[in-house]
């Protein structure tokens, strides 16, 4: 009896913790706080399906308890109850009702599926965006604006965004829970997926994730979406294009150009195998996961594998003085 009481207490404790944890979480990383038309319509589909499931659950439990109470065995009554086989009306009902519920769910789902389908070519009124997944970071290209950035996606409010998705290595899945459902990036020559979403009517910062297991640091493949006013967006584009690789830290720039510029671009200089670091000093995160500070940047430069196992950035043979100089240089990179 004591064992059962102990188990009961444990289950009660777990249930209470589960209820408390449902209140935890980041509202910018939730499909339950939709922003924009696409996210809202997807949320409505979720409500329809959940409502149907709750309705079915309630009906089943009501019938269960009704039968349990009405037909329970009474004390002193050993008679055999009447044996009934089949009831045509009930059989028709419990066949027709699930079909009706499926139709109620299927019609809006199919309608939304066609509505959310994206053409390969964006319209003139859409902001065009090319997204490439890497292990373990995101590259964002703005073809019309002729610029490439990484990890932080800047978009104007009240804008429809057409997205072309590819991958540089394995399958990833582009997901901004507050703005749109996930879409995979599939490997293969010329393999592309398309999606669209709108940015909503308010300025905010949302979190994005990779929603497809892609390796050891899959859970750390985060990015940010900054929705800003249209005026601020234009200023950001202009500042990005004018950004220079030169800063006041000449020593740090020399070390960076010697060891890092073959992979990372800054302004018009550099390679494209690593994240574009233009305007790095204004970013909110380092590698998408670490607080933006010089101390964390030095940790990342010294041993990137410690913080994102399996990523493609090598451990560079730099002295402490060189690491400090590179960190100073990167923290000074600002958009003009």
TrEMBL record:
Domain Cytochrome oxidase subunit II transmembrane region profile per the UniProt entry, residue ranges: 23-120
InterPro entries with a match to the protein in the record: CcO_II, CcO_II-like_C, Copper_CuA, Cupredoxin, CuRO_CcO_Caa3_II, Cyt_c-like_dom, Cyt_c-like_dom_sf, Cyt_c_oxidase_su2
Record's bilayer topology term: Multi-pass membrane protein
Primary subcellular site in the record, as a coarse category: membrane
Catalyses which reaction(s): 4 Fe(II)-[cytochrome c] + O2 + 8 H(+)(in) = 4 Fe(III)-[cytochrome c] + 2 H2O + 4 H(+)(out)
Protein name: Cytochrome c oxidase subunit 2
Record keyword Translocase present: yes
Any one cellular-component term (Gene Ontology): plasma membrane
Every Cytochrome c domain range: 247-334
Keywords: Copper, Electron transport, Heme, Iron, Membrane, Metal-binding, Respiratory chain, Translocase, Transmembrane, Transmembrane helix, Transport
CDD domains, alphabetized: CuRO_CcO_Caa3_II (cd04213)
GO terms under biological process: ATP synthesis coupled electron transport
Function: Subunits I and II form the functional core of the enzyme complex. Electrons originating in cytochrome c are transferred via heme a and Cu(A) to the binuclear center formed by heme a3 and Cu(B).
GO molecular function annotation: copper ion binding; cytochrome-c oxidase activity; heme binding; oxidoreductase activity
Needed cofactors: Cu cation
Family from the record: Belongs to the cytochrome c oxidase subunit 2 family.
Transport recorded as keyword: yes
Start and end residues of each Cytochrome oxidase subunit II copper A binding domain: 124-239
Transmembrane segments: 45-69, 90-111
Cofactor note: Binds a copper A center.
Entry's localization field: Cell membrane; Membrane
EC number in record: 7.1.1.9
